[in-house]
Design brief:
The protein has about 150 residues and is of the alpha/beta class. Helix content is about 30%, strand content about 25%. It has a single domain, classed as HybD-like (Rossmann fold).
């Protein structure tokens, strides 16, 4: 089992929803400790629970649809996701907060000891649109930095 897993979520065919994948790809060019595993999860829905079982510590990177300024990067802990904000913390059928709530009810012992969510405020989520908006593309290095800080590299 990996000690730390960084999971990039999202759909690159929905514009900025592909930012999780972009961050994972950028991290692929960084020398990471051996116990860190990178995963491009796409839009996993409930399958996220199976992925979460594979590490002691999870860092999820995903786009966020909200009222904030596009490109804003923020971090949340698992306890911050207990009650999803209006509109949810994710763009998928079952958002990350909902999947975590189900996991806490069904199999709390299977969830990782630590979970961090690195979110990037999306600007454009148009279906069929490939590529990140300028604001979100500019935020990728800041999101990478946030992940590296969580891992303890910086």
């Amino acid at each position: 089992m990996a000690k730390t897993m960084v999971i990039g979520c999202g759909n690159p065919l929905r514009g900025d929803d592909g930012v999780g994948r972009a961050v994972i790809q950028a991290l692929g060019g960084v020398s990471l400790p051996e116990e860190v595993r990178l995963v491009e999860a796409g839009t996993p829905g409930l399958a996220l629970l199976d992925i979460l079982r594979q590490a002691d510590r999870i860092i999820i990177v995903d786009a966020v649809a909200g009222e904030g300024r596009p490109g804003t990067v923020f971090r949340l802990r698992a306890e911050d996701l207990e009650k999803p904000p209006p509109g949810s913390c994710s763009l998928h059928d079952l958002g990350i907060a909902e999947v975590l709530a189900l996991g806490r009810l069904a199999e709390p012992e299977a969830l990782p000891g630590e979970l961090v969510f690195v979110g990037i405020q999306a600007a454009c989520l148009e279906p069929g649109r490939e590529g990140l908006s300028q604001e979100v593309a500019a935020a990728v290095p800041r999101a990478v930095q946030a992940v590296l800080e969580e891992i303890g590299i910086v």
